[in-house]
Amino acid sequence: MKNLRFIKSALCVTALLALTACSSLPEQLASDNPNLITDYATWQQTPNVNTDVRLGGVIASVDNQADRTRIEVVNLPIDSAGKPDIDQEPKGRFVVYLQGFEDPVAFAPGRLITFLGSSNGTEVSPVGEFDYDFPVMNAQGYRLWKIEERVIVNETGSYIYPCRGIYCRDLHYSTRQGRIIQDVK
Where would one find the signal peptide in this protein (predicted)? Predict the structure, then answer.
């Protein structure tokens, strides 16, 4: 009985550690500031200089300047692990400056990214023919993300159980249904 109780406890601890590891914040996005802003609307209303900010989204454009790189980001809400939520609608745009040269291929438009940095006021710049008031961040750290896709195939039909044998494939092509699951990694 003692061994069974120990095994149950060990499994619970292992499961808890696994869950914690899956949702932990990457080191380059970590901050010990209790007043860190992670909500775009809050930051946009008060883009004070030197306020710590962690935001993410989709890269819209990259411009390498003489001594820094300007990155325009379409904001998406981020989760507790800093991952942009691709199931949400965009919530505006912001500009990030990184010191030095950053390769435009690595920071290509359409990539998901999250930044940690300090607020540096606003700047007006065009989006198409519209002048947009961008909140500005000087980045201290960032994380580029990938979208991984999985296909889940569901067998449907008149069977009580899903048909998985070699003989079922030829007879029931029209009964296969599937969906694509996208995860940010």
Answer: 1-23
**Residue 174 vs residue 117, higher pLDDT:** 117
Enter the DSSP assignment of 174: G
The predicted structure's pLDDT at residue 164? 59
pLDDT of 174 > 70? The answer is no
Residue 9 pLDDT greater than 70, yes or no: no
Q: How far apart are CA 90 and CA 82, in angstroms?
A: 16
Helix (H) or strand (E) holding 142: strand 130-145
> Looking at residue 184, what DSSP letter applies?
E
The distance of Cα 107 from the centroid of its chain, to the nearest Å, equals: 14
Report which residue type is found at 82: G
> What distance lies between CA 147 and its chain's CA centroid?
9
In the Cβ-directed half-sphere of 13, how many Cα atoms lie within 13 Å? 6
Q: For residue 23, what pLDDT band results from cuts at 50, 70 and 90?
A: low
CA distances, 182 to each of 7, 73, 75, 78, 86 (Å)? 35, 21, 19, 15, 9
Query: What global pTM score does this model have?
Result: 0.74
DSSP annotation string for 32-94: --TT-B--HHHHHH---TT-EEEEEEEEEEEEE-SSEEEEEEEEE-B-TTS-B-TTSPP--EE
Here the tokens at position 117 are: 């940095």
